[in-house]
Design brief:
single chain; 85 residues; alpha+beta; 2 helices; 4 strands; 12% strand
């Protein structure tokens, strides 16, 4: 299981999740370009499934892959595409 950052992050990009991640798998950081993506993104390959990012997200945009609402299923690919650069 990995975590996916979905639509509620768009326009927010608080980055509290970036600071909370113990394996540095959430980007962009404050000093990185902000677009693309329109939201913070997590690497499903590097994610260790600790869930540290979930409680610090101010907009409840982070979901376990298996709990991601269907309406935001496209964010699995959006997150993955960020790491294909």
């Amino acid at each position: 299981m990995a975590y996916v950052i979905a639509e509620p992050c768009i326009g927010t990009k608080d980055t509290a999740c970036v600071d909370a991640c113990p394996v540095d798998c959430i980007h962009p950081k404050k000093d990185e370009p902000t677009t693309p993506p329109p939201n913070c993104s997590t690497s499903t390959v590097e994610c260790i499934d600790c869930g540290a990012c979930v409680p610090v997200c101010p907009v409840s945009a982070i979901f376990a892959l298996e709990d991601l609402p269907e309406k935001w299923s496209s964010f699995t690919q959006i997150n993955a595409d960020y790491y294909k650069k």
